[in-house]
Design a protein that fits this description.
The complex is a heterodimer of chains A (275) and B (255).
Chain A: H1 20-31, E1 35-39, E2 44-49, E3 63-67, E4 70-76, H2 78-99, H3 105-118, E5 130-138, E6 141-147, E7 153-155, E8 158-161, H4 165-175, H5 184-196, E9 210-215, E10 232-234, H6 240-244
Antiparallel strand pairs in A: 1-2, 1-8, 2-9, 3-4, 4-5, 5-6, 6-7, 9-10
Chain B: E1 26-31, E2 35-41, E3 44-46, E4 49-52, E5 58-62, E6 65-71, H1 73-94, H2 100-112, E7 121-128, E8 134-139, E9 145-148, E10 150-154, H3 157-167, H4 187-204, E11 211-218, E12 234-235, E13 244-251
Antiparallel strand pairs in B: 1-2, 1-10, 2-11, 3-4, 5-6, 6-7, 7-8, 8-9, 11-13, 12-13
Helix pairs in contact in B: 3-4
Classes of the chains: A alpha+beta (275), B alpha+beta (255).
Chain lengths: 275, 255
């Protein structure tokens, strides 16, 4: 293909005005398992599908705490994610030390975006191969940001990244207008439904492969933590109660979920939220 | 021939900026069987002047660890911030709080790292160990440390520590015939000893006074027995099923 001669050097544009190395880095993000983020007026949450290499292996960690008020979900090269999340932690801690207040979330995301941009413009360096969904809370309320290895970052009402994330995005686009007034449990339910859309045939969300990150006031199934509202990750048995609250995968009537055992071999119906 | 009087002879003098100063105050910690009490007065002074009547010297590190710092206040405050940052890194790496004896060792390495320009701080770390026992660790400015049942440090150390040796370790005191000294004291007794230590120190030492802050760390599952009558008790922990941490404040004489 034509692009082969322009895609080895980070510092060479293609005739179409593209940097292919950066685009290949974005491919690495698309290879990672899915992560979904969404927010309401009071909360911002992340949901991630954890992958494991086999039955004997553990599930890859997808979520990191950055500070009391910021957390991230990753998709792509986990090793790059650790380096960048370490940098974010240093930035957040440094701001607290210097200015005696938590780092504003947009400033924190900009700091890694600027750091990632450097790797798209220097000879011999490769872009980071990981994308983040960042949730945080500051004086202007809860936020959700996407960070990508191109050095771009945007704020979103809802977003998903990783493998088959388009299916999740379709669900989110359909329902996002109702998110603002959702309570935490309904917001998580929406997120789980969106995440479920990214699953392959025969796979399901369970306590081993699902991770939920929350920022905002304590929900009804949670225990108090200090400081209140800070970022926390729910995994394992803690996720069970939310998985139970999901609608069944087959088309279900609007109110209660009917325990229909017949599997759906064709494409999933859009899930209807009750109430 | 007169012998020159050394005081009137001119000789070279080196003038140098002194990086340290003494800010007075006193701290104290006592360990019980399943609790630990860490206290400090709130006066900060320099020479004969009071800088402020309320400058905290005792800080919560985790739900089960409290650090009291005394000596040079600027070094004390900065040292606490740096310890808290190290605890935050531990939390990021391990998703849980650092155990108390690990914090004690960490403090030693942080202090010794500045062996040749020390933090002019006498640290006392108090709290609950992983095994549920009350603990007190005391440090010198370059990191020498030891676990003890009780320790006082600061301006009124020489007034308070002997009192503690008598009341906590029962030194120079014989138990009544047929009885023996209790191995551990109850919380109410310990709190009385703490308050009396500070009121007495305030009477006789000019650098001690204004206010008293007392932190009480309780082991997991320990009831609030002995604390019902304390007024102004404030809980710092949120969960009720883990270790619990409380703080109380009292006034001390302002003269």
């Amino acid at each position: 293909m034509f692009r082969n001669t322009y895609d080895s050097d980070n510092t060479v544009f293609s005739p179409q005005g593209r940097l292919h190395q950066v685009e290949y880095a974005l491919e690495a993000v698309k290879q990672g398992s899915a992560a979904v983020g969404l927010r309401s007026k009071t909360h911002a949450i992340l949901l991630a599908l954890k992958r494991s290499t086999g039955e004997l292996a553990s599930y890859q960690q997808k979520m990191f705490r950055i500070d009391d008020h910021v957390g991230i979900a990753i998709a792509g090269l986990t090793s790059d994610a650790r380096v960048l999340s370490n940098f974010m932690r240093q930035q957040a801690m440094g701001e607290r030390m210097m200015f005696n207040r938590p780092m504003p979330v947009n400033r924190l995301v900009s700091s890694i975006a600027d750091k990632a941009q450097v790797n798209t413009q220097e000879y011999g360096r490769r872009p980071y191969g990981v994308g983040f969904l960042v949730i945080g809370q500051d004086q202007s309320g809860p936020h959700l940001f996407e960070f990508s290895p191109s050095g771009n970052s945007y704020e979103y009402y809802a977003m998903s990244i990783g493998a088959r994330s388009q299916s999740a995005k379709t669900y989110l686009e359909k329902h996002y207008e109702s998110f603002a007034d959702c309570n935490l449990e309904d917001l998580i339910r929406h997120g789980l439904h969106a995440l479920r859309e990214t699953l392959q045939q025969d796979k399901e969300l369970n306590v081993n492969n699902t991770s939920v990150g929350i920022i905002g006031p304590m929900g009804q199934h949670e225990k108090p933590i200090s400081p209140p509202g800070s970022f926390r990750i729910l995994e394992g048995d803690n996720v069970e109660v939310y998985l139970q609250s999901m609608e069944k995968k087959e088309e279900a009537p609007a109110p209660a979920s009917v325990p229909d055992a017949a599997p759906a071999p064709t494409a999933d119906e859009d899930v209807q939220m009750s109430g | 021939m007169t012998i020159p009087d050394m005081d009137s002879v001119a000789h070279p003098q080196e003038r140098r900026f002194n990086p340290y100063t003494e800010n007075g105050g006193t701290i104290l910690a006592i360990a019980g069987a399943d609790f630990s009490v860490i206290a400090g007065d709130t006066r900060q002074s320099e020479g004969y002047s009071i800088q402020t009547r309320y400058a905290p010297k005792v800080f919560r590190l985790t739900d089960r660890a409290v650090l009291a710092v005394n000596g040079f206040a600027a070094d004390g405050n900065m040292f606490v911030k740096k310890v808290k940052q190290r605890l935050e890194w531990y939390r990021h790496a391990h998703a849980k709080d650092m155990p108390l004896r690990a914090i004690a060792r960490l403090i030693q390495t942080m202090l010794y790292g500045r062996r040749f320009f020390p933090y002019y701080v006498y640290n006392i770390l108090g709290g609950v160990e992983e095994d549920g026992t009350g603990a007190v660790y005391s440090f010198d400015p370059v990191g020498s440390y030891e676990r003890e049942a009780c320790r006082a440090a600061g301006a009124a150390q020489s007034l308070v520590q002997p009192f503690l040796d008598n009341q906590i370790y029962f030194k120079n005191q014989q138990a009544a015939q047929g009885t023996s000294h209790p191995a551990h004291l109850p919380l109410e007794t310990v709190l009385s000893i703490v308050i009396d230590s500070f009121t007495s120190a305030t009477e006789r030492h000019i650098e001690v006074g204004d206010g008293l802050e007392i932190f009480i760390a309780l082991a997991k599952g320990r009831t609030l027995q002995g604390m019902e009558s304390i007024r102004g008790l404030q809980e710092l922990t949120v969960a009720e099923d883990g270790e619990r941490l409380f703080v109380m404040r009292r006034d001390l004489k302002k003269d």
